[in-house]
Design goal:
Blueprint lengths: L10 H30 L9 E9 L7 E10 L5 E7 L9 E7 L5 E5 L3 E3 L3 E4 L5 E6 L10 E8 L3 E10 L7
Parallel strand pairs: 1-10
Antiparallel strand pairs: 1-2, 2-7, 2-8, 3-6, 3-9, 4-5, 4-8, 9-10
């Protein structure tokens, strides 16, 4: 073993090794710091917490096959949620539709079917004839003012929420 020199690291090899070790540690520290700030400012949130109140269904008029239902949806949680669909046994196998009324440039309203409705964290959505509603097929025999109709609202994160809606005459739905 004569003539062999012992191995000695070079400056370049030391610098490259140090950089290889520091880069992942710095990335983890940056990520941890960012998540800590995000959580400290309340953005990590709590799960969505959905309540449904003030359910109303317009009493059908004439021979119209459909009517509308409205609810107040409150998300008291720290994360947003989405209303995906509404169901009721009263409609049989006919489906309910989420819709939104939109004013056109000629001051007329049109219904647009929507696939879901967002419920922001810490906010409420009050469905109304001028905004979001649920199009409900009228059951055979219809409903009269004062009847109660059972609905289930299905949310992306909050799951299924059961509620009752009172049948009211259009125009008398406040209060």
């Amino acid at each position: 073993m004569t003539g062999q020199r012992p191995w000695r690291p070079t400056r370049r090899l030391l610098a490259d090794s140090l950089l290889a070790a520091v880069a992942p540690v710095a990335a983890c520290g940056l990520a941890l710091g960012g998540l800590s700030v995000w959580t400290a400012y309340g953005n990590a949130g709590t799960p969505a917490s959905i309540t449904v109140t003030d359910g109303k269904v317009f009493a059908p008029t004439g021979t119209t096959p459909d009517t509308a239902a409205f609810f107040r949806i409150t998300n008291s949680g720290g994360s947003p949620d989405r209303l995906l669909k509404v169901t009721t046994a009263e409609a049989g196998d006919r489906g309910l539709t989420l819709s939104r009324h939109v004013m056109t440039s000629s001051n007329t309203a049109s219904d647009r079917t929507v696939s879901s409705v967002g419920i922001p964290a810490g906010r409420s959505l009050a469905m109304s004839p001028a905004g979001f509603d649920v199009i409900v097929p009228v059951r055979k025999g219809g409903w009269r003012a004062g009847d109660l109709v059972a609905f289930t609202l299905h949310f992306e994160r909050g799951g299924a929420v059961k509620t009752l809606a009172a049948v009211v005459r259009p125009g008398q739905d406040r209060g």
